[in-house]
Structure formats: structure tokens, C-alpha cells
Design brief:
Elements: H1 2-13, E1 19-20, E2 27-28, H2 32-70
Antiparallel strand pairs: 1-2
Length: 75
């Protein structure tokens, strides 16, 4: 999503707009509300990636602890 944000910003600097026409709510970055919605969507996507990463790290740590206990190691 970061690459898309950079691309849309580059388009804006060149005087172009970006519009998403499909979906339940079209997004038009040539308007203030469209830019806001686009950036909120990007922030939510980044947050979701961060949460997935945190859960994955916690799961790997939990599994490593379980394996260590199974072979008789104490943490």
C-alpha cells in the first residue's frame, strides 16, 4: 500500500487524479474527502499487516517455548 500511496502522490504532483471506480464506495483523490478516505484505507491496511506480524511473532515464540518444554528445557 505504501507504493500505491507514493504513486498517487506522484500523480497529484503532476496534476493528475486517481479514482477507484469499482466497489461499494468509489474513491476520488481529486477531492479532499476522497484523499481522506484513501489515506484512512491505507492506514487500516498497514495496521492489519502490523497486527498479523505481531501475532505471527507471538505464535512463533509460543511454539518455540512449547518445543523447549517438550524436550525438557526450562525457560
Amino acid at each position: 500500500m505504501i507504493a500505491l500511496l507514493s504513486f498517487v502522490e506522484e500523480l497529484r504532483q503532476r496534476g493528475c487524479g486517481f479514482r477507484i471506480l469499482s466497489g461499494s464506495r468509489p474513491v476520488d483523490t481529486t477531492t479532499a474527502s476522497g484523499r481522506l478516505l484513501f489515506h484512512i484505507s491505507a492506514a487500516l491496511a498497514k495496521n492489519e499487516r502490523d497486527v498479523i506480524r505481531e501475532r505471527k511473532i507471538a505464535g512463533l515464540a509460543s511454539r518455540a517455548l512449547a518445543v523447549a518444554r517438550a524436550v525438557g528445557r526450562q525457560s
